[in-house]
Design a protein that fits this description.
The chain is an alpha+beta fold. It is built from eight helices and three strands; from the N terminus they run ααβββαααααα. It has one domain: Arc Repressor Mutant, subunit A (Orthogonal Bundle).
């Protein structure tokens, strides 16, 4: 099994939810909504030992949910990695971290139960159906599933 999917399953089991806001609340991660530049969906930061996820207030509900799950993925999968410092001061490939956070968000939002239920009803599901079920932005389809 994929390590990211396994980590998501462990998190869902531990916290009893697949909703990013509920997991964050139980983990003590504060989610804030702020006016950000249009090009920024959100970011995670740690201040005085506490994690914060800041979401762009202009995003619709589904995009905020995906962005919160993505940033939660960074916190869980990458911990104290300072991506801004890495991208400015090294040649490290940040796209690996971004892809992992996107995969974390996708597996979190598309729970196994939803996937199995949909497959039972119609035998198979398309990528577009999976995206709709999980409310994952369609522009993420190529990088998440191909």
């Amino acid at each position: 099994m994929n390590k990211i999917r396994k980590r998501v399953q462990d998190i869902v089991k531990e916290y009893g939810s697949a909703e990013p806001d509920e997991i964050c609340e139980k983990m003590g991660i504060m989610i804030l909504s702020r006016d950000l530049p249009e090009s920024v969906n959100g970011f995670a930061m740690q201040c005085r030992g506490r994690w914060f996820i800041v979401l762009n207030s202009m995003l619709d509900h589904d995009r905020k949910r995906f962005t919160a799950a993505h940033e939660l993925g960074h916190i869980i999968m990458h911990g104290c990695t300072n991506s801004l410092s890495l991208s400015l001061n090294t040649y490290f490939c940040m796209s690996k971290y971004e892809r992992e956070a996107d995969m974390f968000a996708a597996w979190l939002l598309l729970t196994a139960e939803e996937y199995d239920r949909c497959c039972d009803e119609c035998g198979t599901i398309t990528v577009q159906q999976a995206l709709r079920i999980a409310h994952i932005p369609e522009d993420k389809a190529d990088e998440l599933f191909f």
